[in-house]
Amino acid sequence: MMRFSAVDIVFQEVPGEVALAYTITGCPVGCKGCHSADSWPAERGMELTDEHFEKQLNRYQGLVTAVLFLGGEWYPERLATLLRRAQLLGLQTCLYTGYEQVSAALMQHLTYLKTGPWRPECGGLDAPTTNQRYYDLRTGEVLNALFCPEFIDIKRKEEQHVALTT
Known about the structure:
Radius of gyration: 17 Å
């Protein structure tokens, strides 16, 4: 049973979109320093029922352009069902995961995907040194520069360094 600890309207997590965001409980990754550690216990929060999801989609119809799940990939069938429903309404879909990758079955229902565990020493998507990646799955492009313009400059320098040393 998929549960959530928070539902919000967010403006920064999916650049260019207004997103209905669900924080899903039960995260098995357990990143040190996680800002959502309170959502780790799977029994926390409310069950994310079809009725609740439909009610929220109807409530924000014409106002939101995307649905974001902060976690939930540990419930792949349920998450895929919810993503498909959002897609049918013409909404963009996004998943933030602490894993390095998710299944192809989930990726086919996603527009955007943020991967990678939180590592305090690396920073988040707004840090040029982050280990996390934010992808547009339609193109395969890494969009980290939308969060941190310096990211693209550092990656170019790294690529030049590799080219010069190989």
